[in-house]
Amino acid sequence: MILLVTNTLQVAPSGGRELLCKLNHDVLKDIYGDQLLVVELSNQSRVSFKARLNAFKGHIDGLSKAVINNTLRAIQDNNVSKVFVDGSNLGAFVKASKNSFPQLEISTFFHNVEARFFWGAFKQTRSPRALAVFLANYLAEKKSVRYSDKLLCLSERDSRLLHKFYSRTATHISPMALQDKLPTCLELSFDNKPERFALFVGGVFYANRAGIAWFVEHVVPHMGMKICIVGRGFEDLKAELERDGRVEVVGAVDSLAQWYIDAHVVIAPIFDGSGMKTKVAEALMFGKKIVGTPEAFSGYEDVADLVGWVCETAEDFVAAIEQAGKLIEQSYDPDLRALYVEKYSYSAARSRMAMIIGAVS
To answer: pTM of this prediction?
Structure first.
């Protein structure tokens, strides 16, 4: 038996982390079938003083002493030999599992190097709360690094960050992967395009908000193509970001598919973070070129020159988007779509996972 410990799985996930959690579950279910036991953590935010203190013990994202003890009993009762922990901030459970069952093989999946991610969030706000969140996640993640047998990172960059924070590198690299969302009928509006526009996709967390705000201020005044901003939370920033005829803030949508299909090019002006950016793999899924920063292409370095333009300055972005307007004749590129299938698709993730956890594929 193998046990998966994960956040609550959503039927229709939208955020990058939620999408990847669902994919990891589906891959493991595909490989192990009835031999997979799943524990979903219900993350109910608590604001009591006791809950805040317990966060420094690693009781975050739905973990508690009771949840840990119940899961340890499940490991024993079901003769579990392997555990897959989907999230490096679940280190309190990792430590308890290894201490209780030293022979247990524990694999931990790092969506980010959480310490680096929350340190970046703290630098943006400099608030006591952000510092406390960083410290709680650092302490939890440190336990994951110490007590896990296998550490799965999305990229070599994250592996180096692990070493920087905790003096241990990843044992395996497993890049970003996404379930396929391209409609089977490619005729869906590919031939009936609206005006050309560049698409930005992402939720309104700190790096996305800072990146697109910079882009609107420094790049938009010098380019001719319209920008559409799609993502949960951005609807509240219309007054801040919209520019008449130049920038349209759409906000949350039920489906991203038609937005990607209609876009001429995808932009990713992201300057901070860790992990790999979901929007790059999504763009490739829909056969789209990407204009982004080195941070946006982190983990995609080996394909960056094939899939778009890497930009470090506002002038770079202006020039790249001008080139995109001239050089992209067909907004759907089958070669980019093939690259997604080869490297960042469900089937690619399944093959990697089977190899990493030692299952027969």
So the answer is: 0.87
Rounded-to-integer distance, Cα 180 and Cα 256, Å: 12
Tens of pLDDT, residue by residue over 222-251, are 999 999 999 999 999 999 999 998 999 999
Those residues whose C-beta lies under 8 Å from the C-beta of residue 30, and which sit 6 or more positions away, are: 350
Instruction: Tell me the sheet residues that pair with 197.
Output: 226
Identity of the residue numbered 283: A
% the chain with pLDDT above 90 = 78
Number of domains in the chain: 2
The phi and psi torsions of 153 (rounded to 5 degrees) equal -110, 155
172, 208: one domain: no
Tokens of 256: 């991203």
Q: Are 150 and 172 in the same domain?
A: yes
Q: How far apart are CA 324 and CA 329, in angstroms?
A: 9
Q: Is the pLDDT of residue 340 over 80?
A: yes
308-310, strands of its sheet edge to edge: 247-251, 226-230, 197-201, 265-268, 290-292, 308-310
My answer on whether 38 and 90 are in the same domain is yes
CB neighbours of residue 334 within 10 Å: 10
The string of DSSP letters for 191-204 reads TS--S-EEEEE--S
Which tokens go with 173? 């690299």
Tokens, residue 23? 């994919």
